[in-house]
Amino acid sequence: GRYALVVAGDIAVYATGNARPTGGAGAVAMLVGPNAPLIFERGLRGTHMQHAYDFYKPDMVSEYPVVDGKLSIQCYLSALDRCYTVYRNKIHAQWQKEGTDRHFTLNDFGFMIFHSPYCKLVQKSVARLLLNDFLGDQNLETANGVFSGLEAFRDVKLEDTYFDRDVEKAFMKASAELFNQKTKASLLVSNQNGNMYTTSVYGCLASLLAQYSPEQLTGQRISVFSYGSGFAATLYSIRVTQDDTPGSALDKITASLSDLKTRLDSRKCVAPDVFAENMKIRQETHNLANYIPQCSVEDLFEGTWYLVCVDEKHRRTYARRPLMGDGPLEAGVEVVHPGTVCEQIPSPAKKVPRIPAATESEGVTVAISNGEH
Amino acid sequence: GRYALVVAGDIAVYATGNARPTGGAGAVAMLVGPNAPLIFERGLRGTHMQHAYDFYKPDMVSEYPVVDGKLSIQCYLSALDRCYTVYRNKIHAQWQKEGTDRHFTLNDFGFMIFHSPYCKLVQKSVARLLLNDFLGDQNLETANGVFSGLEAFRDVKLEDTYFDRDVEKAFMKASAELFNQKTKASLLVSNQNGNMYTTSVYGCLASLLAQYSPEQLTGQRISVFSYGSGFAATLYSIRVTQDDTPGSALDKITASLSDLKTRLDSRKCVAPDVFAENMKIRQETHNLANYIPQCSVEDLFEGTWYLVCVDEKHRRTYARRPLMGDGPLEAGVEVVHPGTVCEQIPSPAKKVPRIPAATESEGVTVAISNGEH
């Protein structure tokens, strides 16, 4: 009967250059507990970890990562190969125990979602998984169907093909329909919002739930490939509940996400040079002490928390944009501060705080104890 | 039947000044699983979390923390109060269910160990817990026994006494015997090795296991107060197994730690100015790229891993001091490198690697997959 709350969030920013447009930011909060509409399939987790300098942040002064582009693709694709191999071995073992003797293939996934540094890599990943299916079963039909015309690749080795353009092209083509049916819709947030690192694959999950109806989702197996640089990767699967009736948990979770596209569309579009200027300000100020951001807060969504100031000891003070739906008692800016308020708080002016501000003597504002709440 | 491996390690370094001598470094590895000699007492965990800038590292360029000394003491002691209150409430509830109706006191702990920024704070913490016992039971005997002469403090409030010298002095005196019996031995590593942050309280546990026999430990309840700045704290308890026979798990774990003092004593003692010089080198070089440490590795313990070089992309290469007990096939320096070896490797010269070096094309050396090993 206990619940776990999982929160993942990140900001992906890059130095000027090719990678900059792939940046993004996002956060996700997930409740894990019994009677969920999305159910982990236990015993089917394929994990692979390996030491690599594919993407890392060694320069403490900079927010920007160091990326070894070629190595990072190789790491990602090789991790996908390894995780899928382990996953298939495990499900084959489960099936054999149940008396079923057949090959697992991508057809056994209803949807496939992937950690998405950029959308093209996800499309390549679907092709990669199809290559795994192809090489894993010597008896596959190549005269007709999805593998037709691929006989020439019968003897390629996975580890030789990370950058083999012929293999990639052939399997991208062969997997195009699979991608369109099982993966494309999951890239809504990645496509519109860029990379979000830890949040990435859950943004894909949210994209699916936002665009398919409970009737379309019910009973489906969703594969989830999660990848973190350095690196650690897992392929696992989620089974969608069989209960798609109105008012069911599945109905509620899809309804709660039905405005996802509207929310993405409600963002303000700015020209690249405005974005570049904002990034430049961030780059120059993100480590400063004794600093008061001068940017306008008028463009922030209602309810957004923002940085008011950083004092001389790097202690940060935040405030919140009012929630328009609030009544008079709820309206206003909430301030969380480290004991002393910075000398200047930008508009909007402080009204009635939602959370009582801490007294000076305590110097603290947020407290959680177990066993008492 | 599954095991978890918990590894905690940290390096505590401070800028020149009062805090510098409290620094230290350490790591602990713990196996968590069934049939353990040390058993978590389930349902008796008191946790308190609160937002505070007591100790933090806002300056990305520096390894040194910013510490608000007074606030950090207040945070630590108030967390101890809150956690002990929750812990007692929980054990009272357990006891009532079992039909036992009495007050929990420190006498119900066989040993008490604490996160140890410095040893004096731990002594104050024992006094603080005794103050909690005192204020929590209006019917305590003050004519004789441990609380004699403390009537004057009957009406003090916990939150008013973090820096009350009269209260502190009186309860330090009253708790001196408790401290000597239940806590002092646990400070061996903290006293000899300084603060170790995440490892701190487990260093205390190791100190107990190293200095008491299985017969002295068996059946005892050990309280563990863990604290992390920012802050999050938990008071929980460990029950030592009843099986103290030769060859038992308890016998093995104490035997494995019996040379703890010898190992601490085997370290090389250097003058403060040598330490200061080493710290200065570290301060000037710890963020450098394209850097080869020039320090001698001759003083490192056998088997110690050390940094060989940092290349121009901040990729780090490590090697290992030989293990003297090794045979010819095992002897030698092991090198973990990021695909390309730095141009210069200090002595001792590379011999036979223990872990096969990665091929250049892989650029990786350590890999873990589940379901296959």
Question: How are the secondary structure elements laid out?
Answer:
The structure is a homodimer of 373-residue chains.
Chain A: E1 4-12, E2 24-32, E3 38-40, E4 46-50, E5 55-56, E6 66-67, H1 69-97, E7 111-114, H2 119-136, H3 165-174, H4 176-182, H5 188-193, H6 200-211, H7 214-217, E8 221-228, E9 232-240, H8 249-256, H9 260-265, H10 272-285, E10 305-310, E11 316-320, E12 335-336, E13 367-369
Parallel strand pairs in A: 7-8
Antiparallel strand pairs in A: 1-2, 3-9, 4-9, 5-6, 8-9, 10-11, 11-12
Helix pairs in contact in A: 1-2, 2-3
Q: In whole angstroms, how far apart are the ends of chain A?
A: 16 Å
* Percent range for β-strand residues of chain A: 15-25%
> Class by helix and strand content of chain A?
alpha+beta
Supply Rg of chain A. 24 Å
pLDDT < 50 runs, ≥5 residues of chain A? 328-333, 343-365
What's the assembly state of these chains?
Answer: homodimer
Describe what you observe in this structure.
Chains A, B: It catalyses: acetoacetyl-CoA + acetyl-CoA + H2O = (3S)-3-hydroxy-3-methylglutaryl-CoA + CoA + H(+). Chains A, B: The active site is at 115 (proton donor/acceptor). Chains A, B: Pfam families: HMG_CoA_synt_C, HMG_CoA_synt_N. The structure is a homodimer of 373-residue chains. In chain A, a hairpin with a 5-residue loop joins strand 10 and strand 11 (316-320). In chain A, the strands form four sheets. In chain A, strands 3, 4, 7, 8 and 9 form a five-stranded mixed sheet that branches. A three-stranded antiparallel sheet of chain A has the order 10-11-12, with no helix packed on it. The longest helix of chain A is centred in the N-terminal third of the chain and has 29 residues, at 69-97. Chain A has 373 residues and is α+β, with helices and mostly antiparallel strands. Chain A has helices at residues 69-97, 119-136, 165-174, 176-182, 188-193, 200-211, 214-217, 249-256, 260-265, 272-285, and strands spanning 4-12, 24-32, 38-40, 46-50, 55-56, 66-67, 111-114, 221-228, 232-240, 305-310, 316-320, 335-336, 367-369. Chain A folds into two domains: 4-265, Peroxisomal Thiolase, Chain A, domain 1, CATH 3.40.47; 287-346, no CATH class. The two termini of chain A are 16 Å apart.
